[in-house]
Prior knowledge:
CATH topology of the largest domain: Ribosomal Protein S5, domain 2
CATH class of the largest domain: Alpha Beta
Radius of gyration: 19 Å
Number of helices: 9
Distance between the termini: 8 Å
Strand content: 25-35%
Largest sheet: 9 strands, mixed
Order of helices and strands: EEEEHEHHHEEEEHHHHEEHEE
Number of strands: 13
Amino acid sequence: MVxxxxxxxxxxxxxxxxxxxxxxxxxxxxxxxKMNVRPRAGGKGHLVDGHRMTxxxxxxxxxxxxxxxxxxxxxxxxxxxxPSSSGMGSSAALTTSLMGALVExxxxxxxxxxxxxxxxxxxxxxxxxxxxxxxxxxxxxMGMGILLAKGPMDGxxxxxxxxxxxxxxxxxxxxxxxIVVGFTGIKGxxxxxxxxxxxxxxxxxxxxxxVADIGKLTMEGVEALNAGDVERLGELMDRNHQMLSxxxxxxxKLQRLVEAARPHSYGAKLTGAGxxxxxxxxxxxxxxxxxxxxxxxxxxxxxxxxxxxxxRDGD
Length: 315
């Protein structure tokens, strides 16, 4: 049996725009998706948490196993600390954990195969969702902070092209930040939201300009991170949230949580695909912000960032 785990994530800047090759910054958080995978001796078909693997209920598992596993039936058991469809990268953490387990079961090691795992995990998300970026899977694989940029910079890890877009994926140094996550309790559908933005982008030049502006803002965020300028980071987060609202992925409950957090924060915005899911705030008063989010009807938690990436856990 192989035990693996991968971190969840929050996107600081750039969601949705990154699908079109614009920059994005994501941070790994300590909440993890954990998985045990073992060959199923004498069994027929793969099992996930005791149930037969099906496309309807286990789309990421099924795609990954059908495309990247040459062995026999598997018995997979999962345990997630990341709320499903919360905008915190649960599907990417699931996929990279599984891909890491498949590598280990095939005689390889996660540390030697991180780039391949990240690429195959991205291909899986892309195949299941129909359109995606490598943001979440790169962050789940590598941990810490990840920057997707339009060209090579310091800290370059690898380069990815897919569907007419390309990304240069880098490590990015992130100072210690107090980040509070507020989960609406509403599950957003990433595939549907990405498709919604795609329709807007294809039919409206203003949407194209907004996507490009998010990319420019993200690179300003890189400068603010490098300078340790938390006030500037907050201002940019607020602007990013407004742009994402223009793209149509905000939600009334998300907006209530953002507004509740802002009086005690440097900045707040939705994180992930939107349509529900979660928001984040950067603050010097995390407990106060968490209470404000709870009072507004959200489920808050104070996130620990700079978490390690995919790993094989002790047997």
